[in-house]
Amino acid sequence: MIRHGVTCEGGTPKPHPYPPGEMPAEWVPGDIILTHSPRSVLGILIRFGERLRYSGEDAPFAWFNHAAIVARPDPKTGEPRVVEALGSGVKFSFASTYEPKWFAYIDVDAGTADRDKIVEFAEKEAVLNQKYGVLQIASIIGTLVTNGRLTIGVDGTEICSALAAKSLRAAGFWWERDKTIADESYLTPADLAAGFHTELIRTGAS
User: Fold this and answer.
1) Is 101 helix (H, G, I), strand (E, B) or coil?
2) Helix 112-128 crosses helix 160-169 at what angle (to 10 degrees)?
3) Cα-Cα end-to-end distance for the chain
4) Which residues, listed in sequence order, are joined to residue 123 by a DSSP beta bridge?
5) What are residue 187's phi and psi, to 5 degrees?
6) Is residue 84 within 8 Å of 167, Cβ to Cβ?
7) What are the residue boundaries of the structural domains of the chain, listed by start?
8) 90-130: per-residue pLDDT in tens?
9) Is 116 in contact with 66 (CB distance < 8 Å)?
10) Which residue has the higher pLDDT, 8 or 134?
C-alpha cells in the first residue's frame, strides 16, 4: 500500500490541498487535480478496481478516478488549462471543464524551478499527443482484481495518473510501495490521493 508513501528529495512535501467543491483562487502551473467522474463507465471500473486495494479507512482514496496537471494558461485567452490523458490521448483541456464539487485541487508546494520541470514534461506529452494506455488500464484493473503483480503496457502510451506521477518525478517526487520505488506507469489516482494525504480533506466519500 502506498498510503503516506510519497517522498520528495530534500524532505517530505507539504501540499496545501483544497477541499472538493472549493475552487482555487489561482491555478498554479505544476499543481495537480484529482477528480471523480460519477457517470463515466471507465471511471466506475477504475474506482471498482481501486476499492480492492483501498478499503476500510482508506476507502476515500478510491473516490478519485482521474488526475490532471495544471499547465500554463492558454496563450491567447489566458484561461487556466490542464494537461490530461484521455481516450483521445494526452491533450490540453480548460480547467473550467471540471466542476469543483468533483475534484480536489492539490498544491504540490514546489518552487518555481521544480514547477517548470513538472509543466515542461506534461506539456511535451500533450504536444506529442501521446496515445491513451488502454492496455495499461486493463492490466492495472486485472492486477487489482487478482492481487497479482504482473503489469503490461505499450511504449508511447500514457494514462492519467502515470502522466501526473511522471511529471512530478521531474521535480523530485517518487512513490514507494513495500519498501520499493513504485513504477509510475502503473499508479492509480487512488495511489496519488493516498500519497498526497487527501484523507485530510476528504473523509467518508462514496
Assistant:
1) helix
2) 140
3) 20
4) none
5) -80, 150
6) no
7) 11-199
8) 999 999 999 888 888 888 888 899 999 999 999 999 998 88
9) no
10) 134
